[in-house]
Amino acid sequence: MQSFRELFKSIWQHFSHMDGLMAIASNEKEAENATRAQKGRKCFYLRKMIVDYIDTSVRVLATVFFADLLLRIYRCVLEYWCNGRYYLPQDRLWVILRRSCTYNSRSIYLLVGLLLVAFFRISVTGNYRDVVPTALFLAYMPLYWIWSFSDLGQSTLSYSHWIRDSHGLDYAAGMASNYFHGYLKLSLPERENDGLKHRMAVYEDTNNITFGINRLVILIPDEMFVNGVLESKLLDKAEPLETQFINRAGVYRPFKHAVYRMNKKVNGKIYYFAVEGATPMLSFFDSMESNLSATWQMQELKREIWLKFYKHLKELITTWPETRDLVEPIIYNSHDSKGNRVDVGELLLAHMQYKTKSIDEISN
């Protein structure tokens, strides 16, 4: 009897153990299924969040472009009725529309990207309502108009970026263009044996001297002021190059280039330089000091104007074949790191030695 009980007990324990194992396996499977379901829900919500973000972004951008279009139409009407005298009567409407509806390249790229994304979403879902702005989105359009009329996006930094762009409409580019086309392009190229190279060669032969830089050196200091006579312990004023008279708008104007002599020998030789300051920069300096023309924008952005003047002038000089090898613009800080004034003679000497070294390296 006792052995039967023990046998029954062992059988019961065995089946109990099997039920336990089956329960554990069932729990593990349920846990695995629950984990998979949770991951699936996360992926579903993540995809939904990305899709909703894309749809909302398309709607927001579409609202902005629509608000901008209405604003441009409003400005067209305002320009036509209030400022029509600035246009010729025969093409007034066309010019105003063309100016108002012109977009920059970045805006065009953004608009094309918006259309591609919108068409893709419509092709996937088959429902254009997912990307079309609703009345709620359109109700926010006045915020864009307020932003535009108040110029909240404008700052002094915006003006700096505008000056740096290559549109040629800023003050610096205008000064450089006038200086190049009204002076350098006229007086320097060879026409009837009266160009800069010819006059410098005649000057060297007549006076038995050598120019350190075989070009016209134009000084462009950051303070924009250059004296009528260059002040330097290394330079002495010499006789200028031969005066050239050129007909400009019916008037024969004299063009003269100053020459300076270095009063110390370099490699046993005295060198001469045809050098002058950039006169437009001096005019800009005078305009900043005058109460009649000075503005805070000129004072604030004078370094931007100085750098843009040099950049645009050098681009014009190197682009035009007749002046490419005739001008050496030198931009520099008027004072060193210790506040001492930079000597123009030392600047010319360092530039001459650098040019000579570069030529030797090319030759070798």
How is this fold's topology laid out?
Blueprint: H1 2-82, H2 92-100, H3 105-125, H4 135-138, H5 141-150, H6 156-164, H7 171-187, H8 196-207, E1 210-221, E2 235-238, E3 244-248, E4 251-255, E5 259-262, E6 271-277, H9 279-289, H10 296-300, H11 302-319, E7 327-332, H12 344-363
Parallel strand pairs: 1-6, 1-7
Antiparallel strand pairs: 2-5, 3-4, 5-6
Describe the protein in words:
The protein is of the alpha/beta class. It folds into 2 domains: 2-153, no CATH class; 171-363, Stimulator of interferon genes protein (Rossmann fold), CATH 3.40.50.12100. Helices cover 60% and strands 12% of the residues. The chain is built from 12 helices and 7 strands. The strands form 2 sheets. A 5-stranded mixed sheet has the order 2-5-6-1-7. Strands 3-4 form a two-stranded antiparallel ribbon. A hairpin with an 8-residue loop joins strand 5 (259-262) and strand 6. Helix 1 runs antiparallel to helix 2 and helix 1 (2-82) packs across helix 3. The radius of gyration is 38 Å and the shape is elongated. The N and C termini lie far apart (117 Å). Residues 358-364 have low confidence and may be disordered.
Give the CA-CA distance, first to last residue. Answer: 117 Å
CATH superfamily heading of the largest domain: Stimulator of interferon genes protein
Largest sheet: 5 strands, mixed
- Measured by DSSP, the beta-strand proportion falls in 5-15%
Shape: elongated
Helices and strands, in N-to-C order?
HHHHHHHHEEEEEEHHHEH
CATH level-3 fold name of the largest domain: Rossmann fold
- Spatial strand arrangement across the major sheet: 2-5-6-1-7
Q: Based on helices, strands and strand pairing, what is the structural class?
A: alpha/beta
Give a count of the beta strands, DSSP E runs of length 2 or more.
7
Estimated radius of gyration: 38 Å
> Helical content, roughly?
55-70%
Q: Spans with pLDDT under 50 lasting ≥5 residues?
A: 358-364
Whole-number mean pLDDT:
84
Q: Based on the structure, what is the oligomeric state of the protein chains?
A: single chain
Structure annotation, total helices: 12
Q: What would you say the CATH architecture of the largest domain is? A: 3-Layer(aba) Sandwich
Task: Supply the CATH class of the largest domain.
Answer: Alpha Beta
